[in-house]
Amino acid sequence: MVFYILDFTAELENLTNLQQRGGCSDPNYTYYFKVKCENCGEISQKETCVVLSESVPLPNGRGTANLVQKCKLCGREGTIQMVPGHGEPLTIERSQAGIRAKLMVFDCRGFEPVNFSFENGWKAESVSIPGF
Ligand SMILES: [Zn+2]
């Protein structure tokens, strides 16, 4: 198994605490990305989406994962399990210091997540401006 940490940064203008709408561990936030097969290197054509609150049974019957998918080219199966509890909001201090904020950790077997795409579902707080 390999753990992948998805992190991000942004230039915040009068904003702070940029994070998923329901907070860093929002169980209903959807992550969209493509997966690269570790066996043959094929990258899926379609984006995959995973949500913490949705799991599917593993083919071997032992437990569940947030994603079970087969490589279209070589047929090998891979799984992705999300590991919550590591997310953090992007604060203005982090943004200015060039420190990336962690979004989510993915425990991947057989696949490597690539091309994460940002979708809707974000919230931020505005900076209080002195004098207003
Ligand atoms: Zn493959």
From TrEMBL:
SUPFAM superfamilies: MAL13P1.257-like (SSF141678). The keyword Metal-binding applies. Coiled coil: none annotated. InterPro entries: CXXC_Zn-binding_euk. It comes from the Eukaryota. It holds the Pfam family CXXC_Zn-b_euk. GO terms for molecular function: zinc ion binding. Keywords: Metal-binding, Zinc. Belongs to the UPF0587 family. This is CXXC motif containing zinc binding protein. It comes from Musa troglodytarum (fe'i banana).
